[in-house]
Amino acid sequence: MILAIATVTRPAPKRKKEITHEHIVEVAARAIRRSGYDGVGVAALMKEAGLTHGGFYAHFPSREALLVEAADHAGAEAVELFEKIAASAPRDLALTSMVRAYLSREHLEGVETGCPVSALGSEMPRQAPAVRRAATRRIKEMIDLIARQLPDWGQPGAHEQALVTAATMVGTMVLARAVDDRKLSDAFLDAAMKKFAPEDK
Hints:
Elements: H1 16-35, H2 42-48, H3 63-88, H4 94-102, H5 105-109, H6 116-120, H7 129-148, H8 156-178, H9 182-196
Helix pairs in contact: 1-3, 3-4, 3-7, 7-8, 8-9
C-alpha cells in the first residue's frame, strides 16, 4: 500500500526589498498621523526610515503612491486594533470597550499610532482621489466593525447607529486634541464616554 505524504507549502520568505518597502510604509503611516500629509517629505521620511533619499523610487513611483499605501496601512492598523479590543471583551461589552479605548487619554496622546481619521480627517478633502479611496475603504471597515457589535446588528437601524457612533468618536477626539485647555479636552472625552460607554455597563 502506498501512503500519500501530505506536503505543507510554506510561504516564501520575504525578500529584502519587500521588507524594506513595508518598513518605509510603516514609517510613513506614523509620520502622516504625526505631521499631516503635507508634513511628510520624501527626504525626511527616508532619513527617519534609516535609508537614503535616492532609494525611494526603487519602491514607489511617486510620493502620492506612498501616501496611498501609508493611508491604507494606518487605517488597517486601527481596524485591527479595535477588532482585537472587541474580540477580547465579553460580547455585550465589546462596543463599550472599543469606545472607551478610542476616547482614552492614551489614544489622545498617541496620535502617530492611533486612528488616522481623527488625526487626518480635516485634510482628506484636499488629498488625491487614490489617497481618499484608501482611507474611505478603511473607514467603512471601522463602521462595519462597530455595527457588528450592536445588539440589532443586521437590522436597518444598526448601520445608522454605527455611523453616529463613529462620527461622535472621531469628532470628539478631533476636538479634544484641538483645544489647549486640558479640562475642556477631558470634558469632551468624558461627555462622549458617558453617552456611548457609561460606567454602569
